[in-house]
Structure formats: C-alpha cells, structure tokens
Model the fold of this input.
Amino acid sequence: MRVLYFAWLRERIGLAEESLNLPQDVTTVAGMLQWLRGRSDRHMAALANLNVVRVAVNQDFARPETPVSDRDEIALFPPVTGGKP
Amino acid sequence: MTCQPEIRVQRDDFDPGAELQRLTAGNPRIGAAVSFVGLVRDIGGSHGAGASMTLEHYPGMTERQLMAIAAQAVERWPLEACLVVHRFGRLEAGDRIVLTIAASAHRQAAFEACSFLMDWLKTQAPFWKLEETGDGRREWVEARAGDDVAVARWKS
Done:
C-alpha cells in the first residue's frame, strides 16, 4: 500500500510518502487511520484530530467505511483550501 | 451530444482572453460565454514584499477531480464548451490562479455552470495553500466553512 501525505500532514509526519503492508485485520479507512496513528509519535501528532484529516483511496475521496487493501494508493491531507478565511 | 470538458493543471500563467477566443471561435451555436478568473489577494493581510502563496496539489487526483466536476457541469447544463485551468506552485498577490469558462447557446446555462464549477472546485479540488509573509511567517490556510455552504445550493 502506497500512502501519500500532503500539506501540514506531510510536515508533521516528516514523510511525503511511505510504502506499507496492512495488517490482516485492517480493512477500512477508519481502521487504517487508527493503525497509522500508532506507527510513531509523529504519526500520532499529525493524526491527532481526525476532523481535519481527509482520505482519498485511488484518487477518490473516501469515507471511514471505504475498504482499503495493499493494492491501493492512499492519500491523507487536510480539508482542501479553496479560499482564505 | 454533450461537449467534452477541457481540464489543465499547470504551473504557468494562462491568458483568459485567448482561452475565451479559442473556445468560442467558429462555433455559431454559442450565444453566451461566461468566464471566471480567481486571483491571489493580499497574503497574510499585507502586501508586503516577499509575501507569497504556494499551492500544493495531488498530481493525478487533481486532474481526476476537476474532470469529474466538469463532467457534472456538462451533464447538467447544455454547454458548447467547458474549460478549467488551475495553477499550482508559488504565486504572488495579483497572480491568476484559476480560470473557468462555460459557453452555451443562452446565458442562464453559462452563468449557472460557471458558478457551479467554482463552488465545487473550492470543496473538491485537492489543493492546499501555504502562505509565507515577507517577515518569515509561514502558515497553511484553513478550509472555509462558507465553501461547504456555497456548494450545498447546487444539491437539489
């Protein structure tokens, strides 16, 4: 599984991308997020507030229940910013 | 027959007039062409020297999402032409960021489609803005709740 990180998520994790093997029991986006948080302190810090984390699976927006597998391209990023507050 | 939308994601600047001319020339069915240009406003509340905005994007997903948004527009309105051009990279105040053009026989479709494209683009296009001011402040812009409200009006 290829995981890409964008914007401040990338800066906090310290990686633009990584290649990972999902554990057998991780089958959805929600499960994957919990698993990723546990990978390192930096992952936990970056993913502390899941309200500001969006996920794409194979370049489509995903929901917590969207399935994931080792063949997928996953991306994690903040909400997209069209305009300035 | 629905028109094929045209999508470009690029670093370089674009010429709105030239794009309008290119899309409308030689098509006598077009009676209305509406265009929108998004520009970089003041950065970090200042026009200070050295202020810049860097647009990061997700290559691949950007094009895919823009094409999906445009495909919805040509499905929903009778468009003769539909174009979205979006820049990425380092930009300064006054620079052009995005261009949307919708052309149709009559103006209502053209106005509505162009507005639709921008409302969806603001919520669905995977871009993130990093602002850097002249005095060294660096800040990722937060998403606006208002954009979600704007896009809700197109859901019928």
Notes: Chain A has a mean pLDDT of 93. Helices of chain A lie at 7-13, 29-37, 41-46. The radius of gyration of chain A is 12 Å. The interface with chain B takes residues 4, 6-8, 56, 59-61, 75, 77-85 of chain A (CB under 8 Å).
